[in-house]
Amino acid sequence: MYSENNFVVIMAGGIGSRLWPFSRTDRPKQFMDVFGLGKSLLQQTYHRFLPICPRKNIFVVTHEDYRELVQEQLPEIGQDQLLLEPHRRNTAACIAYACYKIASAYPNARIVVSPSDHAIFKEEAFHNCIFTGLESVIDQDRLLTIGLRPHKAETSYGYLQYRDGDEATIKKVKTFTEKPSKEMAELFVDSGDYVWNSGIFIWNVQAIIRALRKHLPDLADVFEEMKGDYFSTAEGKSLQKAYSHCKNISIDYGLMEKAGNVDVILGDFEWTDLGSFQTIHELNQEKEEGNTVFANAMLFDVEDSMVVSEDPETLVVAEGLENYVVAVREKLVVVVKKGNERNYKKIFKAVKNKTGKEYL
Predict the structure, then answer these.
(1) 97: which of 148, 183, 218, 328 lies 20 to 30 Å off by Cα?
(2) Is 21 exposed, middle or buried (0-12, 13-18, 19+ CB in 10 A)?
(3) Residue among 102, 121, 117 nearest 10 (CA)
């Protein structure tokens, strides 16, 4: 049900290291038109939520470095709706900041928290799922996450095990497992009682504040001290002080895995976390002989690979590759095995340690 009490928080502060160098620190993936649709992932996410609540109730949390990018892509976002983090402290701080700010002015708010870099299809089914979730948290001390039935043993997603209950689509969460091994993921898929953790959360604002006070009290204290400064000129200065005391922890590890009131709503829409070249390759419908090509390229005996270049005048020539990513940008060429995300993050970190930000 569309309501003035519905709010949406879009998290848009990540650097997208798993898509480097296609995603860069000065223009991460959420600000890019990944599929050539004329809208960035952030813009797609924003417009996806317009049927859920009034425009004024959509908040975007991002790093202060991306202020201009957000304002350029979402000019309708008001200043109070743009939450600028001075430091990256992971999703717990990001979500706490947004929820405490909303609570200070809207104590009856029901909030959807969503990443900005997901691909979602069958949007009518998505909206129905969101509305069902929002209805279920009215006046309920319930922390809800959306789970999707796995159709393959994906190792880059988190999994939720649930218990059967009286409700058809909402179940009690039993266990969390973050990024399992291939063998473990196969067991999860075969069991039938595990779902992918989408990272999309739904709750009423009082429930999440109670949970923060209980499971992350130091973080809660930081944002409660700002109570009189939200929606004022003092907010920015107070935020600098607050973030200097925030530890780096995700909402999953810091809160959701500890809380006893976590439920999962089973979504029946199509969903993908666009966190890797592998997922973009799988979603691309216009493959050339099994290859995804966003470049001026000549390929010989290349199979199941992806070639990306930001410069259409640079000709990329490759031969004899199978299951590789070739990514080209100014002064940088990256050639890596596709699908090995753990090694990819190590490579990104090694380049950062050796060269600083020059190639990031």
Answers:
(1) 148
(2) buried
(3) 117
**C-alpha–C-alpha distance, residues 1 and 267, integer Å:** 17
The predicted-structure confidence for 154-203, as pLDDT tens digits, reads as follows 888 889 999 876 667 899 999 999 888 889 999 999 988 899 999 999 99
Q: At what angle do helices 90-105 and 217-224 cross, to 10 degrees?
A: 40
Provide the token pair at 153: 């043993």
Are 261 and 285 within one domain?
Answer: no
Full-prediction pTM beyond 0.90?
yes
Q: What is the pLDDT of residues 316-341, one digit of tens each?
A: 999 999 999 998 888 889 898 887 76
| Residue 157: half-sphere exposure toward Cβ, Cα within 13 Å | 28
At 156, list the tokens.
């880059």
Whether 31 and 135 map to the same domain: the answer is: yes
Name the pairing type of β-strands 324-329 and 306-309: parallel
1 is a domain residue: no
How far is the CA of 91 from the CAs of 18, 125, 252, 255, 256, in angstroms? 17, 26, 8, 11, 12
Bridge-partner residues for 303, per DSSP?
322
The string over 43-63, giving b where at least 16 C-beta atoms fall within 10 Å of a residue's C-beta and e elsewhere, is bbbbebbeebbeeebbbbbbb
Report phi then psi at 93, rounded to 5: -65, -45
Q: Which two tokens stand for residue 88?
A: 């990256």
Amino acid found at 306? M
In a domain, 147, yes or no: yes
Point out the domain boundary residue: 275, 293, 313: 275
Please check whether residue 67 lies inside any domain of the structure.
yes
Whether residue 175 is found in the same domain as residue 233: yes
Query: CA 221, CA 239: separation in Å to the nearest integer?
Result: 13
**Do 61 and 137 fall into the same domain?**
yes
Question: Which residues constitute the domain of residue 244?
Answer: 6-275
From the list 176, 165, 356, 161, the residue with the least C-alpha distance to 253 is 176
Torsion region of 331: left, alpha or beta (phi above 0 gives left; psi -120 to 50 gives alpha): left
